Amino acid sequence: MKVATLKHEITFTRLSEIESSEIIAHMSEPRISEHMPLLKFKWDEASVVNFITTKEKCWSRDGLGHWAILFDDKYVGWGGFQKEGDEWDFGLVLKTDSFGLGTRISKKAIEFAVLDPRIPFVTFLLPPSRKKLRALERLGAIFVAEIEYEGERFLKYRLETK
Length: 162
Description:
Number of strands: 7
CATH class of the domain at 10-118: Alpha Beta
Strand order of the largest sheet: 1-2-3-4-5-7-6
Order of helices and strands: EHHHEEEHEHEE
Distance between the termini: 47 Å
Structural class: alpha+beta
Helix content: 25-40%
Largest sheet: 7 strands, mixed
CATH architecture of the domain at 10-118: 3-Layer(aba) Sandwich
Radius of gyration: 16 Å
C-alpha cells in the first residue's frame, strides 16, 4: 500500500491578494498586540487599506517589502523586508494558530535575503516583551543594542547574509 505524503508549502504573495476581513481578524487578535507596541489603533477596513497602501509604497520605492504569507495556500500572517535607512529590517507577524511556523518562514525569507545582493545583512527589532529569542539566535542573529523607535523600546538584532 502506498502512503501519500503531504509536503506543506510556504509561499509569499502580495498583501493586496488577501481579503481585508482576514487581515482585520488577524490584527485584532489580542495576543498579536501584546508584542506590537506600535499597534495603537483598532483595525478596520480603512486601516487595512492604509496598511496595504503603505506596504505597496515600499515595494514601489525599494523593489521589496512585506508579503502575505501562505501555508498550503492559507493566509497565516504577513512579514518581509522593509528598508529602514540603509538597513533592511525583517518583520514577521503570524496569526496565533501559526506561531509554530515562525522559524520555517524566517528561514525561507532569510534564504531570499542571502540571494539578494542589496541585502548584506538583516536587522530585527523585537519588543522587550519577547522572551523567546533562541530561534533568532539559532538563525545566527546577534544582539546589537536596545534602541528607541517611534517612542518605543526595541531589542535590535543583526544577521549577516553575505
